[in-house]
Amino acid sequence: MAILEVRNLKKSFEDTEVIHDISFTMDEGETVTIIGSSGSGKTTLLRCLNFLETPDSGVIKVKDDILFDSDVPESMSEEAIRRKRLHFGLVFQSFNLFPQYTALENITLAPSLLAKEDTSIDASSIEENAKELLEKMGLSDRMGNYPHELSGGQQQRVAIARALALHPDILCFDEPTSALDPELTGEVLRVIKELAKQHTTMIIVTHEMSFAHDVSDKIIFMDKGVIAEEGTPEEVIDNPGNERTIQFLANYKNGK
Predict the structure, then answer these.
(1) Range of the structural domain that residue 207 is part of
(2) Which residue among 37, 47, 75, 242 is least crowded, i.e. fewest CB within 10 A of its CB?
(3) Is the residue at 93 inside a domain?
(4) What does the angle CA 137 – CA 127 – CA 155 come to, to the nearest 5 degrees?
(5) Residue 223: beta bridge partners?
(6) Any idea what the CATH number is for the domain that residue 186 is in?
């Protein structure tokens, strides 16, 4: 069953069109990886899905909930945007943890604030859930540590746990290992691979081609704001049919 439907999405900044007429769907439990050169529109697409940017036109639908439809204008109040964002969890490349809070507090903060607005949320289970997530991330012994006391890989795993704490329909990663050295990159990629095995619905923007091949159900290759090629890892990475995809992968293999 399709959990996400994106139709004819466009976004420009001043006179520059960054994403043009993007359409794709993904099913519940799928891992979709978006690859492409810097400036191809990958991160902008992710930011539009998470409403960190407002699309210019198109449709975004999660399950039966239409989050955005340019043909049906609505007031995009801060409260409305916050509700739309709850469908997505976003893990940034630079972690974005709150330095004044411990690992556990970073995870419990957003659910606790949400529980104050929504009485249907069981506030008593928030800390227990956060501890379970830290255990899942292999960080049970770090829950009382502040971000500056954690390695980059540990901080990113806390950020993943924080995103999962709100039980999003879709977990999004924006180049989750780009700020990490190779050893710490492995820590984070192992966690994401484990989430994929558990059929966590994920969209991943990455430059790690071997990881993308191993973890993805579907690969989307973006070029100059459009989807140039889409398919399984075997189709897009092993046997690309689009000339631009072939060139991109050749440059990547040559280390450019």
Answers:
(1) 2-87+169-253
(2) 75
(3) no
(4) 35
(5) 226
(6) 3.40.50.300
